[in-house]
Amino acid sequence: MNNARRRNFRPRNQKNSFRRRNGTMNSSNPSSFNNNGNVNFNRNGSMNNIHSVEKTMQKFQQLAKDAQSNGDPVLAQNYLQHADHYLRRYNELNNRKDNFNEKSKTLENPETPSKV
Could you list the residue range(s) of the whole structural domain that residue 101 is in? Predict the structure, then answer.
């Protein structure tokens, strides 16, 4: 090995050193902010996928059971509150899905007016 020779690295452009999927955070994109002006971190739709929400809810329920069996009631309660949040979201998505299915059925099979 030749330690006397140093390798000079080429500096990178500033714009390529950090890439974001949806542009910069400083953009005035209204979809990235919720009503309170806070940044919306659920842009990937994970909270809109009913299976993902159900799996997360079950994960927190299992963590609560494990914490309870380990003798930590405070942590168990914390996990149960998280599970309750995901249960509410799961029920909301189920209601939205049921309403969508009812609307699509009425559009496919409109009731015909009875003849007099």
Answer: 60-105
Rounded distance, CA 42 to CA 52, Å?
Answer: 13
Alpha-carbon gap, residue 83 to 63, rounded angstroms = 9
Residue matched to tokens 């069996």: 69
In this structure, the number of other CB atoms found within 10 A of the CB of residue 56 comes to 19
**0.70 exceeded by pTM:** no
Among residues 84, 82, 64, 83, the alpha carbon closest in space to that of 74 is found at: 64
Q: Is residue 19, in this structure, part of any structural domain at all?
A: no
* Average pLDDT taken over every residue of the chain: 77
What's the rounded Cα separation, in Å, for the pair 62 and 83?
9
| Position 95 in a domain | yes
Residues 81-112 pLDDT 10s:
999 999 999 999 999 999 988 888 888 776 65
Residue 98 placed within a domain: yes
Q: Which residue has the higher pLDDT, 55 or 43?
A: 55
